Amino acid sequence: MPLTACPGDDHPHPFLLAAGGRDTILPFAGAPRAHPPTVGVQTAVADLRGQDRCVAAPERSASGGATVSRWTGCADGTSVELVVYPSSGHTWPPSAAGLMWSFLTGASVPAPTAPATATGNV
């Protein structure tokens, strides 16, 4: 899985990238000679911040054994978030669910338009 923006889509999107510092499947520093090659986490986040035109310094915090860097005020009100679990491999620590939920419920994305439904007794 490449850690880059989708080809042909340069619109801002909120992003959350979670990474384990000891991941051997998607190495934190990247694996340029792997098949397929992967970029490092810092390069991926820089690309995502560039796509969203994030210019401010990140807010940094710690949560559940993770370090969290969050760039806000990006284009179209989006944000980019990097969650690093320094001692984790290619796994989801239990604390990841809460961080993902916070990101998803706070993300600024256009609401989908729902099709009209018929009203009546249920």
Compute the gyration radius: what is it? Answer: 17 Å
Distance linking N and C termini: 44 Å
SS-based class = alpha+beta
Order of helices and strands: EHEEEH
The count of β-strands is 4
- General form: globular
Measured by DSSP, the beta-strand proportion falls in 15-25%
The DSSP helix count reads 2
**Which stretches of 5+ consecutive residues score pLDDT under 50?**
none
Main pleated sheet: 4 strands, mixed
Percent of residues in helical segments? Answer: 10-25%
Strand order of the largest sheet: 1-4-3-2
Q: What is the average per-residue confidence, as pLDDT, rounded to a whole number?
A: 83
* Integer tally of domains: 1
Question: What's the short version?
Answer:
The chain is an alpha+beta fold. Helix content is 20%, strand content 19%. The N and C termini lie far apart (44 Å).
